[in-house]
Design goal:
With 165 residues, this protein is of the alpha+beta class. The protein has 3 helices and 11 strands; from the N terminus they run H-E-E-E-E-E-H-E-E-E-E-E-E-H.
């Protein structure tokens, strides 16, 4: 193989590597889940773990959406039902129900979701800001992502973890 051809192949290989890195940097990794009839997502880096439902203990004098606390390997973690927090009717847990343990900084809480959808990567250009009808400061919505034929509401983890009880 000639030196000229080797140089061209090396340049193409290097360009492909740069394109791949650029595509990864322009994307956001999210985990999607269903609450009621809507699909929501949060950044994958804010997930400590996802578990099947376990026993929890009710805590008195908390809002109805705070189911109580549960013990996860020695850590006592509050458990919040997102259906109730979002103003939906309570629903009996099913085989697909999961607890998502989210974290940001020192704040950790478990959230009951109806079911997981998938881990996905969305380009930042496919994410728009929250609708103008919402007060950005108090809104739990970080943005709206478009993926093929679906629309995902991207939630602010810091707002979900904010203690208002």
């Amino acid at each position: 193989m000639s030196d000229k051809l080797k140089n061209i192949i090396n340049k193409q290989t290097e360009q492909q590597k740069q394109d791949t890195v650029s595509q990864l940097e322009d994307a956001v990794q999210l985990v999607g889940f269903i609450i009621g009839d809507e699909e929501y997502s949060i950044p994958i880096l804010n997930i400590q773990e996802i578990i099947k439902p376990i026993m929890w203990t009710r805590v008195p004098q908390t809002p109805p959406y705070v189911l109580g606390v549960f013990n996860l390997r020695g850590a006592v973690i509050p458990l919040i039902d997102l259906r109730l927090k979002f103003g939906l009717q309570a629903q009996k847990q099913t085989e697909e129900t999961r607890f998502i343990v989210m974290k940001e900084g020192n704040e950790v809480a478990g959230f009951v979701i109806d079911r997981l959808t998938e881990a996905l990567r969305i380009r930042k250009t496919d994410i728009t800001s929250a609708p103008d009808t919402l007060d950005e400061e108090s809104s739990m919505i970080d943005g709206v992502g478009k993926k093929a034929d679906r629309i995902l509401t991207i939630l602010k983890v810091n707002k979900l973890l904010q203690r208002d009880f």
